[in-house]
Amino acid sequence: MSEHNHPVQISGFWQGAKDSQAIIFTYLPVSFAFGVSATQFGFSAWEALFLSCSMYAGASQFLVVALLGSGTSIWMTALTVIALDIRHVLYGPALQNLIQDRLNLKKTAVWAWGLTDEVFAAGMIKLSQRRQEWSESWMLGLSLFSWMSWALGSFLGGLFADQVTHLPQFLQAALDFLLPALFLSFLLAAFERKHTFVVFVSLVVSAMACYFINMSAAIFIGIASGILAGLFKYYILKQKDEVSI
Q1: Percent of the chain at pLDDT above 70?
Q2: Torsion-angle region of residue 56: left (phi > 0), alpha (psi -120 to 50) or beta?
Q3: Contacts of 187 (CB under 8 A, 6+ apart)
Q4: Which of 10, 59, 181, 236 is buried deepest, with most CB atoms within 10 A?
Q5: DSSP secondary structure code for residue 233 in this structure
Q6: Is 1 helix (H, G, I), strand (E, B) or coil?
Q7: Residue 132: which residues within 8 A CB-CB, separation 6 or more?
Q8: What are the φ/ψ torsions at residue 72 (nearest 5 degrees)?
Q9: Over the stretch 40-50, which tens digit does the pLDDT of each residue have?
Q10: Please, where are the H alpha helices in 135-232?
Q11: Quick one: residue 69, left, alpha or beta (phi over 0 = left, psi -120 to 50 = alpha)?
Q12: What confidence tens digit (pLDDT) does each residue in 102-117 have?
């Protein structure tokens, strides 16, 4: 009887917008820094806004303006960004495996386009911990307002680039740290004890690759090691557990 008296309330569009506040407060200063960086490489505020509307690749946009500004061909720039952001191909299927409701194609196309690292992490936390509250409308609000804050910050950064070039260096360093810090907070929120093995393997392998090779290689090697560790844990260790039982 208690279940009927206290039905689970499905989160709607405006709840998704409200839940995006943590992402917005981080996206605004980081995207502002992107707008400033874009103008330093010869792009206008409108061009910075265009990149954030058409590309919306988060931190990868810094790399795009740097490569294009240094004379790199657009094809080489595109291939570099694709290699850097190939992980996004896995975000949709990972969420779909947890979604029980039938998806609306139009809504899905919109919020799937806005699946940045942080939006994906927020969606995974919702689906893994409060699945019955999840809805596509909530996901729309989350992704749409996150993207709007990124686009707005990019435009404002391009407009006021001349006024912020004299900021202290420690503030610029703080802006660079905000985005990974936000994603780390989502990662810790979604962390469960059963993920210890995969996370441990990924961290150790990434650290070794960073020390012996370089940071860029460590990112790809860390991702690959995490995938392999997850597969090993699921198919090998799980089978051993079942046999022992």
Answers
A1: 79
A2: left
A3: 121
A4: 59
A5: I
A6: coil
A7: 8, 10
A8: -65, 140
A9: 888 889 999 99
A10: 136-159, 161-164, 169-190, 196-212, 215-232
A11: alpha
A12: 888 888 888 888 888 8
